[in-house]
Amino acid sequence: MAATPLRIAVWDWLIRGFHWGLVASFLVAWASTRGLPSTRWHEPAGYAVMALLALRLVWGLAGSHYARFAQFVRPAGAVLGYARLVLRGRAPRYIGHNPLGGWMVLALLATAAFTALTGWLFTTARFWGSDAMALAHEASAWALLVLACLHVVGVIVTSIQHREHLLGAMIHGRKALPRDGDVS
Ligand code: HEM
Ligand code: HEM
Questions:
Q1: First vs last Cα of the chain: how many Å apart?
Q2: Ligand 2 pocket residues where CB is under 6 Å
Q3: Is the C-alpha dihedral spanning 119, 25, 171, 10 positive or negative?
């Protein structure tokens, strides 16, 4: 007799590859502005971010269940209601992204796209040497850094509230099966 699985597959290999590829390219893009390992790594790392975002966009529209934007982007009312429950320590567990996390995902994707786009535009003949473009690029790179830090705080808070290893789930892709009161 086959054993009943204790865990559910949530993040497919593409989501996990995308996530850790994005983290690596983002860190290299930042570190290279400080010469680590070399400033020559900046543009390739930025282009890697662009390629990963394009892939994620397609997967968000036509990918696996928990990867789809339609699965985790919820209306403002639901997000506010969820935020109130988080503050009271009574938020339900979500199998995919929770309502706050879903909007954070969109904010991270949009800010990463804007950062990479303005970086590329700065290298084109049209915007070469443009102070405004350089400012837009640097400001959005800082905004992305702040959002990424808030994102990690959100992951830690949710992991504690639900006693669930969310980082592990983003590595092996699996979570504990839904229990009563969970939202899948
Ligand atoms: C998410 C991806 C990216 C991040 C986080 C990022 C971050 C940054 C940061 C923080 C700076 C300011 C460096 C300083 O302190 O002077 C910078 C500058 C620059 N970046 Fe990016 N960047 C990204 C993508 C790109 C891409 C795709 C390109 C071009 C293909 C690019 C081209 C440049 C250039 C040319 C500058 C120098 C601008 C100037 O002279 O003020 N970046 N980037
Ligand atoms: C090392 C620090 C990081 C850790 C531990 C981490 C962890 C995680 C975890 C656990 C999730 C799943 C959240 C959930 O269960 O709903 C996630 C999702 C995500 N993270 Fe991170 N993250 C880190 C850094 C970053 C950075 C630097 C970025 C962007 C620059 C980023 C962008 C994202 C995005 C876009 C998603 C959504 C994944 C998807 O649906 O495609 N993360 N992260």
A1: 27
A2: 15, 18-19, 22-23, 26, 56, 97, 101, 105, 108-109, 112, 144, 148, 151-152, 155, 166-167, 170
A3: positive
Ligand 1 within 6 A of 124 CB?
no
- DSSP for 4-58, please give it: PPSEEE-S-HHHHHHHHHHHHHHHHHHHHTTTSS-GGGHHHHHHHHHHHHHHHHH
State in Å: Cα 155 to ligand 2 middle: 8
Distance CA 98, CA 10 (A): 13
Looking at 3.40.720, 1.20.950, 3.40.1350, 3.30.200, the CATH number of the domain 8-173 comes to 1.20.950
Measured in Å, residue 10 CA sits from the centre of ligand 2 at 14
Domain chopping of the chain, boundaries: 8-173
In tens, the pLDDT along 84-122 reads 999 999 999 999 999 999 999 999 999 999 999 999 999
pTM, full prediction: 0.95
Q: How many CB atoms lie within 10 A of CB 127?
A: 16
